Amino acid sequence: MKIMVAVKRVIDYAVKIRVKSDKSGVEMSNVKMSMNPFCEIGVEEALRIREAGAASEVVAVSVGPAQCADTLRTALAMGADRAIHVVSGSLGPVLPLSVAKILKALVEIERPGLLILGKQAIDDDCNQTGQMVAGLLKWPQGTFASKVLLDKEKQVATVEREVDGGLETLSLDLPAVITTDLRLNQPRYATLPNIMKAKSKVIKKVTLEELNVEIKSDLEVVQVTEPPKRKAGVIVSSVDELIDKLKNEARVL
Amino acid sequence: MHRFLSTFASRAKPCRNSFFSSIPNPSSSILCGFSSLCTPIKGWRGFSGESGGRESLLYDVVIVGAGPAGLSAAIRLKQLCRERSADLSVCVLEKGSEVGAHIISGNVFEPRALDELIPNWKDEGAPVEVRVSSDRFLLLMKDRALPLPSPFDNKGNYVISLSQLVRWMASKAEEMGVEIYPGFAACEILYDKDQKVVGVATNDMGVAKDGSKRETFQPGVEVKGRVTLLAEGCRGSLSEKIIRDHKLRDKGQGQHQTYAIGIKEVWEIEEGKHKPGSVLHTVGWPLDNNTYGGSFLYHMKDRQIALGLVVALDYHNPYLSPFDEFQKLKHHPSIKSLLEGGNVLEYGARTLNEGGFQSIPFPVFPGGAVIGCSAGYLNVPKIKGSHTAMKSGMLAAEATFRKLAEGVPMESYWDSLKKSWVWEELHKARNYRPAFKFGLLPGLAISALERYIFRGRLPLTLKHGKPDHEATEFAGLHDPIQYPKPDGIVSFDVPTSLYRSNTNHEHDQPAHLCLRDPAIPELVNLPLYAGPESRYCPARVYEYVSDEKHGPKLQINAQNCLHCKACDIKDPKQNIEWTVPEGGGGPGYTVM
Questions:
Q1: CA–CA gap between residue B213 and residue B206 (Å, rounded)
Q2: What is the rounded distance in angstroms from the CA atom of residue B331 to the CA atom of residue B313?
Q3: Which top-rank group of organisms is this from (chain B) (predicted)?
Q4: Do residues B505 and B101 lie in contact, with contact meaning Cβ atoms separated by under 8 Å?
């Protein structure tokens, strides 16, 4: 069985984000980019399933401009067998619904038994792609996975999900979509020998035309602003003053 | 190069223990020109199985540090290979998460070495664009500024971000076949049985704070080379070990190295205030007459300016905090007006060499050489070290090539250094900085004499004062300095500034700052010197924290570390040893 893992290239989590002065977006030039942390967890989980013998191949895919190849190299260095790069060129950020359509087209070509994604990307925090692609494929979905157990014979995945009320356990018939949450695993380091080996692994480039997918953006980013600066706190001297402020200034009473 | 890898990669996967060194070299026909003095593994990169539980990778040349010196050496090596139809595998290890992440410098760049290395750098798109348009020098007093004639001659120089230039150099190096691996810290020097350096080993990754192995544990890897070049920058951790063990300072120019700490911010300022190429240097306030240092303010492009304060680490007052002096500086009327309405993009700090000519160590050790700022080629009166670091890397590459291709001993590097413009330049500049051990005004006077009359031709060479760590006087002899609170507009506190450096380390790892004797901070540093490390560290890694039961105890917040090496230099008893943490950690400079 093949596992397909979708990874996204985002601004590194340790970088201090700045909004562009024209408010059209976030400053992306001269900024360190890395693989989305949840996607790293996805790659790690796919590798563990393969190492346990329940899958034969891990294919990493990514949608984006030329530099996405670096992100795919990281996935290959962690241990993925091959990679597919869907070149989006200068279209700008590709939104979740478009990515979902692209993944659906790839799934129909590659026919994996499992599609793993990060639960959300740390740049847009959409938390939509996994759910949308499951809907388009009409596949069962286990999102916010904190534990995944694969039964190879029965072709069933048991997924423990972290939900608001606690933990929910689902049983999914394969093929299925799983999105990863933080506590699923600790991604492995890409070692130097593996990075070297990854340079010779194949990254296949695919265009949107070949996939027969048309990207039409139905969302337009109007403005991006920084959150308002936090005002200094005020120490109140009595309960009466507190009630007065809550009533007349904050207007919450 | 990659065709070799694909041959081995397919064989490397199933059997990690087989000995690939026994497989005949498919490219041996290219290398038949090499003399028989060289070992049989040439122009070749492969896996040599495991030794001591660690995998080994073999290269012809291993370079530690992807900075100006390291990358210049790598590029020059590949150029020589192209010129002489040879093939040498070159591997560059970089502890930063990406190339340029740990590069911070003023920087007014003299393109002399770049012109020699890549003559058509302009067409190749090097980020060297803003020509110096004006050059001012001010003597600052508390609220005034006295213009002085500029001692610098920056005609033909550029205001750049060295971090960006290094990133461009790395792309050029990779185009030529150099392998660069960011995120890997070289922590150990490897020796063979004859005490010759055969390479370096990278850190074990995934070690927990208590030393146990975490789930993600990966042992380090041995990266072996026929020649190893250490290009770790100022006070490099491996370089210092090598210099000490092989007594390279005594074999070289003889004097100890002296240092300064540079604290820098890059600001984006209002449109009307920005003049690309404008260069300003100051001396005087906020530093007193016994503390050597000064500030710089350079206008880059895109409304960005580089602003910083350099404080020599031979200061006497243990209550001095270079970070707070920098915050004070920004309130000076000549500077404050420029910053108002702007915002800080990045913050960082790094120590730099000030020893110059007198402190150059003999750079060659059995198996390799120390290059760039790890040896120390900064021209103090010019305050430029990038061009000399690059040239030192290029000369090392030429010596390395001579060694590997012709069997000429590496010592030829020392001779070529002495014949180069680096030597001539540093010789001419040698008496400026040592003159300041007599004080600010005598120093300025002697410097003026050197600059306008003697021009380095005096037959004497001034010696340095005490080593920086011995220059700190007892706290009892000084009064604590009351620094003003940051206003959050122009001056900031350390946590805010640190956030802007994009610094990050895996928190669950052993602290990389080691105390040789854990009792010294509470026995010596705190009572005698009032804990100077809690003040000179620009990241506030060191804090003396008390609780109800015990008196103040040193707490090391290693995760904040900016890798500046000030503690390794300035600790009075040299008790703090900076060792390299897990690769990929540390600051994330992009425009510094």
A1: 6
A2: 23
A3: Eukaryota
A4: no
Superfamily of domain A2-228: HUPs (3.40.50.620)
pLDDT of residue B52: 60
Per the model's pLDDT, the better-predicted residue between A213 and B16 turns out to be A213
Spans in chain A with pLDDT lower than 50: none
Task: Please give the average per-residue pLDDT across B177-206, as a whole number.
Answer: 94
Touching B: A residues 138-197, CB under 8 Å = 186-189, 191-193, 195-197
Return the residue of B nearest to A229 by Cα.
B488
Enumerate the domain spans of chain A. 2-228
CA distance B411 to chain A (A): 31
pLDDT, residue A120, reads 96
Give just the sign of the alpha carbon dihedral A195, A197, A200, A206. negative
Q: Which of residues 192-211 of A touch B (CB under 8 A)?
A: 192-193, 195-197, 199-200
Dist CA B502 CA B247 (whole Å): 37
Question: In Å, how far are A74, A196, A199, B356 from A78, measured between CA atoms?
Answer: 6, 11, 12, 44
Q: Are residues B144 and B334 in contact, defined by beta-carbon separation less than 8 angstroms? A: no
The whole-model pTM stands at 0.89
Decide if B432 contacts B455 (C-beta within 8 A): no
Contact B229, B368 (CB under 8 A): yes
Question: Would the pLDDT of B20 be above 90?
Answer: no
Residue B183 near residue B93 (C-beta atoms within 8 A): no
Q: Give the pair of three-digit tokens for residue B110.
A: 């003299």
Q: How many helices (H) and strands (E) does chain B have?
A: 19, 25
Question: What DSSP state is assigned to residue B475?
Answer: G
Residues on chain A touching B221 (C-beta within 8 angstroms):
191-193
Burial environment of residue A141 by CB neighbours within 10 A (0 to 12, 13 to 18, 19 or more)? buried
pLDDT value for B151: 82
What's the one-letter identity of residue A125? D
Facing A193 at nearest CB: one of B6, B47, B216? B47
Using the Cβ of A229 and the Cβ atoms of chain B, whether some distance falls under 8 Å is answered with no
Residues B56 and B48: beta-carbon distance below 8 Å? yes
CB atoms within 10 A of CB B406: 13
The SS3 call for residue B49 is strand
> Do A140 and A176 touch, CB atoms closer than 8 A?
yes
Nearest to A145, CA basis, from A2, A44, A35, A36 = A44
Q: Is the pLDDT of residue B410 over 90?
A: yes
Backbone dihedral region of B196: left (phi > 0), alpha (psi from -120 to 50 degrees) or beta?
beta
Residue B457: per-residue pLDDT: 82
Is B171:B302 a contact under the CB 8 Å cutoff?
A: no
Which residues of chain B are at the A interface, by a Cβ-Cβ cutoff of 8 Å? 2, 5-6, 9, 12-13, 47, 55, 57, 97-98, 101, 164, 179, 181, 184, 202, 205-206, 214-216, 218, 221, 223, 268, 345, 499-500, 502-504, 588, 590-591
Q: How many CA atoms lie within 13 A of A85 on its CB side?
A: 21
Asked whether the beta carbons of B430 and B456 are under 8 A apart, the reply is yes
